[in-house]
Amino acid sequence: MLLIFPCNGKGFTTLALVNSNNQKGSVKELIKQNKSKKGASVIIEKMMPVLLFLTAVVSALTTVGILFTLIFETIMFFSRVSFVEFITGKKWLPFVEQAGNFGVLPLVMGTLLITVIAMLVAIPVGLAAAIFLSEYASDRTRRIIKPILEVLAGIPTIVYGFFALTFVTPILQKIIPDLGLFNALSPGIVVGIMIIPMIASLSEDAMSSVPQSMREGALGLGATRLEVAIKVVLPAALSGIIASFVLGISRAIGETMIVTVAGGATPTMTLDVTGSIQTMTAYIVQVATGDAGYGTTVYYSIYAVGMTLFVFTLLMNLVAQFITKRFREEY
Predict the structure, then answer these.
(1) What is the pLDDT of residues 269-310, one digit of tens each?
(2) 45 vs 67: CA distance, rounded Å
(3) How far, in Å, CA of 242 to CA of 91, rounded?
(4) Of 102, 218, 261, 279, which is least surrounded by CB within 10 A?
């Protein structure tokens, strides 16, 4: 039973609990009694912090192990190939019989080309979807559309790859006759489609966190719903929206199977989207399928490329965290 006692007509004293025997007991006493109980619940309470700690340690050690492997194997590669040649060379011909060319710039160019095309597709569509879900859609519509949109994130990327090769590419070839079977445009568009759910979901969450009072104030001043969305909500949620863009870029840089299936295997220093290209991830897949023997320079090159890819994604994540902290609005 819960009792509330008046205090000089100005307030109330602390709440008190009274049991069926009219014996008063404080909350602290009840907590103490519960802690004193013996049984499985007490054992579980003592074990859970240990289990959670071990889980966190395993995650951290796994990350350290992956990083250590990358660093060690990359050092082995650079003991055979000049670091300057690797980061400045404009030819990537690792399978030449005697001394191959290991300039990573063509792979970086292919990766960035796919990323730019993907973001040109994902940012407008994802942001428009986020604005609709946050500012225009009813609760019922949002409950229907948002899960359907997020289903795109659960489709295997290999399926996206064959979708780009067998569906998107033939359509684009009717528009661009010179478009090759393997090209940068088709996988770039499909990578953008795959990223749309990430940008839409994260941006919608950021926009939904903007207080309703800001919208009502703008509407009260005569602004339209579109003006409220563009001039009030978007600036207020800018940190979360930009962070979603950066994470989308990171996801596009690390995409593997779409570009492997539909992009081709021709590392070139070009901005031509109609020709075959090769990304860093696609090269790793090519070598990992057995094109190079263990211990060869080509074998170690996949770790050097993997380290380059790791640095790119790490920088993107750091930029996302900086933007989120620097421009975060708290209400």
Answers:
(1) 888 888 888 889 888 888 877 666 777 888 888 899 999 988
(2) 34
(3) 34
(4) 218
The answer to whether position 209 is within a domain reads yes
Angle at 249 between CA 243 and CA 251, to 5 degrees: 105
Judged against a pLDDT cut of 50, whether residue 96 lies above it is answered with yes
Q: What is the distance between the alpha carbons of residues 270 and 156, in angstroms, rounded to a whole number? A: 29
Query: pLDDT (tens digit, 9 = 90+) per residue, 308-317?
Result: 988 888 888 8
Instruction: Output the CA torsion 221→226→231→232 (10° steps).
Output: 70
Q: What predicted TM-score, i.e. pTM, was given to this entire model?
A: 0.78
Q: For the chain, count helices (H), then strands (E).
A: 15, 7
DSSP code for 99: S
**Helix-, strand-, coil-residue percentages of the chain, each rounded to 5:** 70, 5, 25
Q: What is the percentage of the chain residues whose pLDDT exceeds 70? A: 84
Q: Closest by alpha carbon to 236, among 261, 203, 279?
A: 203
DSSP one-letter string for 252-295: HHT--HHHHHHT-S---S---TTS----HHHHHHHIIIIIS-TT
Give the mean pLDDT of the chain. 82
> What is the per-residue pLDDT for 22?
41
Quote the pLDDT of residue 151.
82
Centre a 10 Å sphere on the Cβ of residue 50 and count the other Cβ atoms it contains.
9
Per the structure, the complete domain to which residue 18 belongs is given by 2-36
Q: What single-letter amino acid sits at 284? A: I
Q: Clarify whether residues 74 and 162 are in a common domain.
A: no
Six-digit token string for 1: 């039973």
Question: How many whole angstroms separate alpha carbon 249 and alpha carbon 120?
Answer: 11
Query: Within this chain, do residues 136 and 15 fall inside the same structural domain, yes or no?
Result: no
